[in-house]
From TrEMBL:
Keyword annotations of the record: Oxidoreductase
Gene (UniProt): xyoA
SUPFAM superfamilies on file: FAD-binding/transporter-associated domain-like
Stored PROSITE patterns: FAD_PCMH (PS51387)
Hydrolase among keywords: no
Segments passing through the bilayer: none
Protein name: Xylitol oxidase
Family annotation (InterPro entries): ALO_C (IPR007173), FAD-bd_PCMH (IPR016166), FAD-bd_PCMH-like_sf (IPR036318), FAD-bd_PCMH_sub1 (IPR016167), FAD-bd_PCMH_sub2 (IPR016169), FAD_lactone_oxidase-like (IPR010031), Oxid_FAD_bind_N (IPR006094), Vanillyl_alc_oxidase_C-sub2 (IPR016171)
């Protein structure tokens, strides 16, 4: 087992430098046995994924445990792939593609770890596509007693443990449902006005397999408010009020499109089109903050009107916003629990004071039933109010981690 001191060359901060970790050390176990040893040895610890969060969610007053050194590889049995938790989605996707298999969806960034993305309910887009966590059929967790616990779909604790916020233990392996590989064409559609966005929003989001609307919420000089990124398995659909782009774009207007996945309707394998960014480039801009709110889909117009009403406050802080759809699921702490959702994402400039001052006002205007993305910035002091199984999850945490080995300041604020 390797042990490092947090710093710029190890795990000193989140990927966007939005939080400096305070943990006293970083360990990289090479086996599940070593994971169990560190849990039994350390009174306080947390799993550290690929650092693609923006808060102290993964921090610890003790040590951080990274699984990127786990000496293990994926295995495919029929339609199910068993994956080490520290593996990144981009690496797993390429491995599956070589074997003729695919995952139903991917997030915007292929750089994120499988265990970390699942634990926070991270998602891609598509009215028929659930979050990444909905592909999980089993997971293996080293709990607070150092025991390796296996949970399978249908078992009593499974639905509560999948989106587990790292509070139950260290997820060493997951099993994911796959499908035969498929091709996707990506196109960008320009010139969408706010009137067309509002009137046709649900139709636009359902126009293809995966759809993202990128907007800065204020009218651009040409009168438009958004571009629509369409990822289709069946050809290029028409987008009401928009025209087909003839050159590639970055999701943030004005930036070099090279880091983004191929556009212009050129067919390609699923894993090279469903993410917005290529694995071998830095995603987005790097120095940024992010927030995201998931709203019941039947309140979509109300939600976009709420953000539009704050344009003068939002626009000066915003690099770009994104609107997506996520299908409902039954995972207790999934932001899409029990309802199809509209996801309102905000990539903010690196202005923490400005963003923190805005978030309470933004959250106040969003519709009832809105839930924040766990890995991003939010202001609400009572996020559990929107989750019917919140108290059940807290009981689950007490059973899996009776001595609070995996507890940290973030969980203290959120779970209490």
């Amino acid at each position: 087992m390797r042990t490092d001191t947090p710093g710029p060359e190890t795990a000193g901060s989140t990927w966007a430098r939005s939080h400096d970790y305070t943990a006293r050390g970083l360990v990289r176990p090479r086996s599940v046995a070593e994971v169990r040893d560190v849990v039994l040895r350390e009174p306080r610890l947390r799993a550290l994924g690929s650092r693609h969060s923006f808060t102290d969610l993964a921090d610890s007053p003790g040590v951080l445990v990274s699984l990127d050194g786990l000496e293990d590889s994926p295995t495919l049995t029929g339609e199910v792939v068993r994956v080490p938790g520290g593996m990144r989605y981009g690496e797993l996707a390429a491995w599956l593609q070589e074997r003729g298999r695919a995952l139903p969806n991917l997030a915007s960034l292929p750089h994120i770890s499988v265990a970390g993305a699942v634990a926070t309910g991270t998602h891609g887009s598509g009215v028929g596509n659930g979050s990444l966590a909905t592909s999980v059929t089993a997971l293996e967790i080293v709990d607070g007693r150092g025991e390796l616990v296996r949970l399978e779909a249908g078992s009593a604790d499974f639905a509560g443990a999948v989106v587990g916020l790292g509070a139950l233990g260290i997820v060493t392996h997951l099993e994911l449902r796959t499908s035969p590989t498929f091709e996707v064409e990506q196109t960008v559609h320009e010139g969408l006005t706010y009137a067309d966005l509002r009137e046709h929003l649900t139709d636009i989001l359902g126009a293809a397999y995966s759809v993202s609307v990128f907007t800065r919420w204020a009218d651009e000089p040409d009168g438009s408010v958004a571009r629509v990124w369409v990822k289709s398995r069946t050809g290029t659909p028409e987008i009401p009020g928009a025209t087909l782009a003839t050159e590639p774009h970055h999701v943030i207007p004005g930036l070099d499109p090279a880091p983004c996945t191929e556009q212009l309707g050129v067919p390609g394998p699923w894993h090279e089109r469903l993410p917005h960014f290529r694995l071998d480039f830095q995603p987005s801009v790097g120095a940024e903050l992010q927030s995201e709110y998931l709203v019941p889909l039947d309140r979509a117009q109300e939600a976009v009107d709420a953000v539009r009403s704050l344009t003068d406050r939002v626009r000066p802080l915003l690099l770009v916003g994104e609107i997506r759809a996520v299908a409902a699921d039954e995972l207790w702490l999934s932001p899409a629990y029990g309802t199809d959702t509209l996801a309102l994402h905000f990539t903010w400039k690196a202005d923490p004071d400005g963003v923190r001052a805005l978030l309470p006002e933004l959250e106040e205007r969003l519709p009832e039933g809105t839930r924040p993305h766990w890995g991003k910035l939010f202001a609400t002091a009572d996020p559990g109010a929107g989750y019917p199984r919140w108290d059940d999850f807290r009981d689950l945490v007490r059973r899996f981690d009776p001595e609070r080995r995996f507890w940290n300041a973030w969980l203290d604020r959120v779970l209490g």
